[in-house]
Design a protein that fits this description.
Layout (H helix, E strand, L loop, with lengths): L8 E5 L4 E2 H13 L3 E6 L4 E6 L3 E7 L2 E2 L10 E4 L4 H6 L3 H13 L3 E4 L3 H6 L7 E2 L6 H6 L3 E2 L4 E4 L2 E4 L5 H16 L3
Parallel strand pairs: 1-3, 1-7, 2-4, 3-6, 7-8, 8-12, 9-10
Antiparallel strand pairs: 4-5, 11-12
Helix pairs in contact: 1-6
């Protein structure tokens, strides 16, 4: 266990249908680096996770409803995927606002799989370089992004990966990039 992110607080924006490993593994890496995380969602209570979008994979307790969350209370944002999760987030004005404000504030944002859909809806991808799950790449290009097929892409403070098979590299990049971005100058 390291403490590079001790004292830092990361929001994880997710809702029902989140791909379990895409929330669980990066959150574990962040905790291992000393960060505190809060699960921010569309509703209170719990969210239902999935495995490969189909199979139920347990639940996660929600820490805060996105309508009540403020970007100023967090140092960074994690947007996990799964198809249903970001598809719901991108239709919720509070979730879209929350993601947009992170990008506008220049705070680190990490996203995997279908997670960038929320950033596309927020209008924050024009001119950005990123990767994603193959089925949403056209949507991201239509939002003005340059999309590539790579394991991990770092564009400034935006970190992206394609999917669950990239989680080891993604988790390493998230901890490394969040640490670099959040250290005092």
């Amino acid at each position: 266990m390291t403490e590079e992110l001790h004292g830092k607080k990361v929001a994880i924006l997710a809702t029902d249908g989140v791909e379990r490993v895409e929330l669980e593994e990066p959150r574990g890496a962040l905790h291992g680096a000393g960060a505190e995380t809060e699960l921010v969602s569309l509703h209170t209570g719990q969210i239902n996770a999935r495995q490969m979008d189909i199979d139920p994979a347990g639940t996660f307790p929600v820490d805060k409803q996105v309508a009540d969350a403020a970007v100023r209370d967090y140092d960074a944002l994690l947007l996990p995927g799964g198809t249903m999760n970001p598809d719901q987030l991108r239709t919720d004005p509070d979730a879209v606002r929350f993601a947009r404000e992170f990008m506008e504030a220049g705070k680190p944002v990490a996203t995997i799989c279908h997670g960038p859909w929320t950033l596309a809806e927020a209008g924050t991808l024009s001119g950005r370089h990123l990767t994603s799950w193959p089925s949403i790449r056209t949507d991201l290009r239509n939002a003005g992004a340059e999309v590539v097929d790579e394991e991990v892409v770092v564009d400034g403070r935006l970190i992206s990966s394609r999917g669950p098979h990239d989680l080891p590299a993604f988790c390493n990049a998230v901890v490394r990039e969040f640490t670099g971005a959040l250290q005092p100058a």
